[in-house]
Design brief:
The protein is mostly beta strands and 60 residues long. It contains one helix and four strands. A hairpin with a 4-residue loop joins strand 3 (42-47) and strand 4. The chain binds zinc ion.
């Protein structure tokens, strides 16, 4: 039986949008394995607001 307990849903938020002070902040829904990824997730993703790749960070 596969255990799925370690997968948790997370939200990734565009750091660049956040700093810019714009009302909209690009976000992605994702999930991670909390057992293998204990630190905050930081990933490069395409920001649809800025139309470029930026750093997205996990938020709670
Ligand atoms: Zn952005």
């Amino acid at each position: 039986m596969a255990k799925k307990d370690n997968r948790v849903n997370i939200q990734l938020e565009c750091q660049s949008c956040r700093k810019s002070g714009l009302p909209g902040v690009a976000r992605y829904c994702s999930e991670k394995n909390k057992k293998t990824t204990t630190a905050r997730l930081e990933i490069k993703k395409y920001c649809k607001f800025e139309r470029k790749h930026t750093t997205f960070k996990e938020i709670k």
